[in-house]
């Protein structure tokens, strides 16, 4: 199943997050994910696993065009020239001829010009057809507004931390209005959602796991989840979310949950 980005590119609706998985563990993780049918892999230069991902993809013999790969430029490589260099290094490490989606990993809060210059590099890569789509990560509404005011090509995606208790409503609503697809990193709150009593109660009602509820809740909110797992059974479980629908009252309940776990960041700060 796919979502269509504003430039017509189709992106699979569940991606595999890969941060903190490196080396041979990563090669095995990607190999198993591809065997299970995952076709959307989310990485970043900062994850230091692009070589492992590239090697697993190559060994899989799956046609390149069937796999959707995202990477990101890290904070220390921002600016026009550095971004192009960082992109080329990602491309080389992944052993690919193009990347499907390339993102600015984090905004610089105090340097809007650096965000704009970096965006211009992404526009160049897009025009040169080295990427099929470009976007942002961890950009909140006020960061996005500056890019939109200064861009030639509008971002197609914004990837933010998103899970029960952290819905970033203002940013989500803004993205919907601008037809920017939101992706969720840590859709399971880094695994810290899973013992929550309210979510356990809802999961029981649908005969599903809390992880499956979190993933389906993202999808029903129009958000593309990127759950991370290095465990075969859990990777499988995280894809089995298309045989049930969360009822509106449960969606509303989860949408209104207060922040209780997830990243160590204060969600109320930018
Ligand atoms: P593991 O790799 O052992 O499966 P997030 O995607 O929010 O960052 O969460 C990732 C964490 O959640 C990882 O620690 C992962 O551990 C765990 N996890 C992923 N899928 C499941 C699942 N279906 N059930 C329980 N834990 C899960």
Description:
- The relative contact order is 0.13.
- This protein has a single domain (2-255), classed as TIM Barrel (Alpha-Beta Barrel), CATH 3.20.20.
- It has helices at residues 23-36, 50-60, 80-94, 112-127, 141-150, 169-177, 197-206, 210-220, 232-239, 248-255; strands at residues 2-4, 10-12, 16-17, 40-42, 68-73, 99-104, 131-137, 157-161, 181-185, 224-225.
- The radius of gyration is 18 Å and the shape is globular.
- The protein has 270 residues and is of the alpha/beta class.
- It binds adenosine-2'-5'-diphosphate.
- Adenosine-2'-5'-diphosphate binds at residues 17, 186-191, 194, 209, 211, 227-231, 234, 237-238.
Side-by-side strand order of the widest sheet: 3-4-5-6-7-8-9-10
Structural class of the secondary structure composition?
alpha/beta
For the record, the CATH architecture stands as Alpha-Beta Barrel
Globally, the shape reads globular
Describe the structure concisely.
The chain is α/β, with parallel strands linked by helices. The chain has helices at residues 23-36, 50-60, 80-94, 112-127, 141-150, 169-177, 197-206, 210-220, 232-239, 248-255, and strands at residues 2-4, 10-12, 16-17, 40-42, 68-73, 99-104, 131-137, 157-161, 181-185, 224-225. Helix content is 41%, strand content 16%.
């Amino acid at each position: 199943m796919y979502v269509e980005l504003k430039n017509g590119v189709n992106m699979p609706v569940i991606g595999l997050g890969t941060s903190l998985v490196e080396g041979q563990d990563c090669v095995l993780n990607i190999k198993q994910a591809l065997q299970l049918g995952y076709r959307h892999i989310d990485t970043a230069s900062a994850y230091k696993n692009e070589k492992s991902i590239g090697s697993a993809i190559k060994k899989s013999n799956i046609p390149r065009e069937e796999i959707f790969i995202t990477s990101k430029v890290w904070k220390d490589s921002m600016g026009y020239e550095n971004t192009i260099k960082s992109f080329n290094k990602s491309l080389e490490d992944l052993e690919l001829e193009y990347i499907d989606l390339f993102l600015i990993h984090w905004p610089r809060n105090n340097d809007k010009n650096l965000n704009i210059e970096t965006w211009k590099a992404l526009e160049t890569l897009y025009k040169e057809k080295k990427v099929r789509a470009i976007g942002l990560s961890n950009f909140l509404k006020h960061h996005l507004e500056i890019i939109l005011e200064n861009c030639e090509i509008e971002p197609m995606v914004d990837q933010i931390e998103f899970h029960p208790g952290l819905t970033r409503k203002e940013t989500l609503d803004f993205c919907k209005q601008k037809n920017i697809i939101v992706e969720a990193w840590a859709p399971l709150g880094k695994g810290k959602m899973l013992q929550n009593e309210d979510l356990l109660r809802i999961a029981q009602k649908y005969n599903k796991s809390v992880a499956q509820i979190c993933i389906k809740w993202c999808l029903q909110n129009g958000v593309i989840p990127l759950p991370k797992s290095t465990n075969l059974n859990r990777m499988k479980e995280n894809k089995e979310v298309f045989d049930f629908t969360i009822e509106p009252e449960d969606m509303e309940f989860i949408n209104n949950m207060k922040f209780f776990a997830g990243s160590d960041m204060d969600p109320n700060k930018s």
